[in-house]
Fold these 3 entries.
Entry 1:
Amino acid sequence: MQAADALPLGRLAHWLRDHVEGFRGPLAAERFAGGQSNPTYRLRAGSGDYALRRKPPGPLLPSAHAVDREYRVMHALAATMVPVPRVHALCEDDAVIGSAFYVMEFLDGRIFWDQRLLELTAPERVAMFASMNRVIADLHSVDYAAIGLGEFGRPGNYLGRQIARWSRQYRASETEALAAIDNLIEWLPRHLPPEGAAAIVHGDYRMDNLVFHKTEPRVIGVLDWELSTIGDPLADFAFHALTWRVTPELFRGLAGVDFAALGIPTETEYVAAYCRHTGRAAIAAWEFYLAYSLFRLAAILQGIAKRAIDGTASSTEAVDVGRLARPIGEMAWDLARSLG
């Protein structure tokens, strides 16, 4: 963890006493290390530990860093099977700490960055991947209108709108000519699969956005809901499943590992489990969804590359991460070309 970045503890403690039931000081804070778009802090107080997630201070794009949306979706999901931290209160008054924030339960568990889970046993890995699969399937099975999220997003033409959005994002951050990305921008809109029923999509469901129980092989919390909306659940699941298509060296993936020895399901097995949980016979356009997801990842990485060049990236690793846009984009175009 890092220092609290001058979080104004006096004003914050006063606000917490008024808005968080049972809060009791004294208050201390430390910021979690890592590349979160929205800075996240651990609050230590006489009444226990909490987590605070805030917008970055300073000028921001109007729709960026939407902590209010994160708060809303987690509050709604609290009544479902999807494990989320309990949210306590939302503050949209910048005067308290300098930007909007919300306070939620601190989950005392484990977060894993290497999806091979080399420190665990094979039976534990089997259970961990089964739990991760079950949770995203449960998310995509929630009746979003019934829990008050009927206006949380626009379900119609989700893939078309997403492809257009990420194409614009890529063009805005383009630093060199990448023929593979140019080709995908033309190819993807012309090969859209039929649109199915909409669902809540997380937008960045991956292992390091999950908290696992301290000793048991199960997910106890899904974090980082900044990109959540209502849309195509298969696009959400495919982005999550990219881990089977990229190597551990390229992007913390699983491609090339000995699945049987590790106790990790193959991509085919993992997709089949998701289909069973969600009542699908199969995913007809699976390879298209993967090509789109690789394209989306390449666009995200290109944005990181541009910020690194401009000197505004938040991580010292941004330059190296940004360089991955080219190989990821080329993977996407290779896959798209194989589909005709």
Entry 2:
Amino acid sequence: MSIPDTLRHKIDLFRTAARVFRYEEELFSRPSWVAVLLGQNIVPRQCDPIVASLPHAMVHESLESMRLAMAQASTAMPTHEEFIRRYCHAGAGSS
């Protein structure tokens, strides 16, 4: 199957410099596009030149802020077992 030009453009941008382009009306968010592209073994050859031009401390601070936010979010979430028990519990007498 041939790849539409719009998707080819997205793949090329990501593969070349880790850039993700999306239109506002698209269903996928930027993190979703990254997950899909990496899941298809499409790996950037280099980091985004804009990011590379920023001071190292600024990039480190931003990444650390994201890491902490993800750690806090995951700590606040129930475990898989708790989620299943809470939301997928079969009622008494069900088969």
Entry 3:
Amino acid sequence: MKALLLAAGFGTRLRPLTDTVPKCLVPIKGQPLLDIWLHQLDDAGCGPFLINTHYKSEQVDTYLATSAYRTRATLAYEPVLLGTAATLIAHLDFFDGEDGLLIHADNYCLADFGAFIQAHRERPAHCLMSMMTFRTDNPSSCGIVTLDENNIVVGFEEKQENPSGNLANGAIYILSAELLKNLKQGNSGITDFSTQVLPTLLKRIYAHETSAQLIDIGTPTAYAKANNLTAHDT
């Protein structure tokens, strides 16, 4: 399964670390974050990969040039950031009419992607996409989802002070070919996937919960947590 990895952001909350390195390349236990993503996905049989870049893109170019995944990954430089949905829409042809992964690659994730893909294949027929979810110990900092008895998303709470639960959107999605086709046909003015696409798909998103580590490393505290995980934690 092909994967589009969103890796172009500035990582402003992670400064001063990201003053010198793009967020997608910050090291987790010495390994660049993007390398962890590609390894996890490759192990699950996914690929090829398309990675958008912007901030300090030359460092991502240098990384990929010597990466084990250089023959399976393509970089798409954005002179001006397009936005998560606009980037997806600009590269719809990459998926060749098949289901595909859309990943916010600025998170640290050790999920079983094979299990996620299998869950997507077994999703209810009316669901146009699947979303990876996880339990968070800081729900006010996450997008919280509400599910029905069939694990279908029926509600969103975006970074509310007192959310109703702790099941969070992991910003990792499998989009059906039908949904990708719909986006190609009607996408005027759409730039953000979370605020402009997801709300239109309520009751048509299947949720798959991972028990593996999934950490938004956007803050120094969260980044330190990822680096301090033990083998037992992972």
